Amino acid sequence: MADKKQFVVIGLGRFGGSVCKELIKLGNEVLAMDMDEQKVNDYARYATHAVVGDSTDESTLRSLGVRNFENVVVAIGDNIQASILTTLLLKEMGVNNVCVKARNYYHHKVLEKIGADKVVHPETDMGKRIAQQMSDENVIDYIELSEEYSIVELIATAKLEGKTLIKLNVRARFGVTILAIKKGDNIDISPSPDYQIGKGDLLIVIGHNEDIKRFEDQVM
Ligand code: ADP
């Protein structure tokens, strides 16, 4: 597992709350902050430290030592002004990696301009992901690497049963690479060319979206 890191999560709504819990689950330390005392109480048992505070107040951020953290997640929902001001303060303090939840396109643009390192749209991103998964019954999971490239987890159909990777020759035929194969609980991260695929194996495939589609259409 990766080294333990220290995070600040600002805003403990549904998104920030879920980021906080998952970071802790992954073994990291989290300073959770919200101006709503009730939220802070709710998260006190998950976060390493949970504090009540307004992140648009520079002296609060300073007294909490936020500048010493490498990673901060700004998960302020509706208050775009507070989200922008918080991001600005964090970047001015020299926080290296600031990830911010954006409400809309304009918010996103401003965040980028003032130096946010990552801007996310959880609802739209998740919507896309769910649509991808649901519109294709072979797709179990999907990670968008860029507009054009993805990693997908495909479930091997009966058509693939017994075929070896060398016979499928997917890299030459489709330009995609099978990174790993999951069979039950086992994962083989460098499957050998003579590995025989079984029905139900999960193939983790990386490539251009169009190439992955061609691979699925012709082979799966
Ligand atoms: P979500 O859509 O992820 O559920 P919410 O809008 O419900 O987001 O949650 C945002 C959280 O951010 C709220 O708990 C709110 O109290 C908190 N918040 C808003 N502004 C600030 C601020 N300036 N400082 C700290 N927390 C804030």
UniProtKB/TrEMBL annotation:
According to UniProt, the name of this protein is TrkA family potassium uptake protein
Organism source for this protein? Evansella tamaricis
Q: Where is the RCK N-terminal domain?
A: 4-120
Residue limits of the RCK C-terminal domain?
Answer: 137-220
